[in-house]
Specification:
Blueprint: E1 2-7, H1 16-28, E2 31-33, E3 42-49, E4 52-59, E5 62-66, H2 68-71, E6 78-82, E7 95-99, E8 103-105, E9 111-115, E10 120-125, E11 129-136, H3 138-141, H4 148-153, H5 160-172, H6 184-202, H7 206-232, H8 240-246, H9 251-260, H10 265-282, H11 291-297, H12 303-314, H13 318-328
């Protein structure tokens, strides 16, 4: 997944304005209107997927426009301007206003739809304004939307599809660690999932809604649950029913989501707990912790089951892992 990152802090104060102009022109064929460039602060993280591009932007006061001159490039992408879930809420931090077919402020709802084929601009104001921008190829989106005019006239409704879309896009707009890149098939699948969620968020036609729900919504729900489990798998009260209630669906549907992906809910939870235990056993900072305490901390309430599952998963006992990593840390 191609990833591009830009930050004015990597440039000298006197060079920031030119760096922003060049970056906006190269990445989006947009022209920034900059005054007082020495104090300008802007950061962008961009993820490119087949048919979809995502940009997470933070900026101090700035206006970026797409005028008739830029429209000559023929780009007709459909743009979703969203408020990131982790954006600062304090008014003094700043906000943004999209100006296309009228004035559309960030305070007017979860976000708006824009069209690259129409002139317009986005104004950032304050010390730190944040926007999540998702661009879809027009031909992949608008033919599947039931009421295009309404989608363009009003703010986007706060739906499950839109929340999942924003969550997925925000996660993809962050850099990934070494070795975490995915193959071409996975990139296509992720792009299709975002496209499905985008169509649903805009109000899909019945046939498109059925297809998109079966693909994008189901996968997005599964990923949201998996992300939740990566944080909460070691809770003592975690259960299938607990997860279902948190996500507003039935326990049967949670189980079906995993099964459709060729997985099992309990196996996924077990893997998270085993990985946590392994990490603690290999960490010198936990060298004085008893193995039983590490097992309980990872969510296991039965030590015999923990030892058996650990050995089956890693082909060694917990004590062997601790001893191996302790030996690796000794000076030569």
């Amino acid at each position: 997944m191609a990833f591009i990152e830009f930050n004015t802090r990597n440039h000298l104060p006197g060079e920031r304005a030119d760096a922003v102009r060049e970056t906006c022109a190269a990445l989006a064929n947009m022209a920034p209107d900059i005054s007082g460039g020495d104090g300008l602060e802007m950061s962008m993280r961009i993820r490119l997927l087949p048919g979809v591009s995502i940009a997470s932007v933070e900026s101090s006061t700035l206006s970026v426009s797409r005028s008739p001159r830029q429209l000559a490039d023929g780009n007709d992408d459909v743009l979703l301007f969203l408020n990131p879930a982790d954006a600062p809420r304090a008014p003094r931090q700043g906000g943004w206003v999209l100006r296309q077919r009228g004035e559309m402020p960030c305070t007017g709802g979860p976000g708006y739809v824009g069209l690259n084929e129409q002139a317009g601009r986005i104004d950032f104001h304050g010390a730190r304004a944040s926007v999540l921008l998702i661009a879809f190829a027009r031909q992949h989106v608008l033919p599947h939307v039931a009421d295009v005019d309404r989608a363009l006239r009003h703010s986007l409704p706060d739906t499950l599809a839109l929340r999942l879309l924003a969550r997925q896009a925000s996660a993809l707009a962050r850099p990934v660690g070494d070795g975490a890149e995915v193959g071409d098939d996975e990139r296509v699948r992720m792009g299709q999932q975002l496209l499905d969620l985008g169509v649903l968020a805009l109000g899909a036609k019945p046939q498109a809604r059925a297809a998109a729900s079966a693909r994008g919504l189901r996968q997005a729900r599964l990923k949201a649950i998996q992300a939740d489990l990566r944080v909460n798998a070691w809770r003592g009260d975690l259960s299938l029913e607990w997860v279902a209630q948190r996500h507003g669906i039935s326990a049967r549907y949670v189980r079906a989501l995993f099964e459709h992906d060729g997985a099992v809910f309990s196996d996924y939870v077990l893997e998270q707990r085993l990985q946590r235990a392994f990490g603690r056993l290999a960490d010198p900072q936990h060298a004085q912790s008893q193995i039983s305490a590490i097992a309980y901390d990872a969510g296991f309430n039965n030590l015999s089951w923990f030892y058996r599952a650990f050995r089956q998963r890693f082909a060694m006992a917990p004590g062997d892992v601790r001893q191996l990593h302790a030996q690796e840390g000794l000076p030569a």
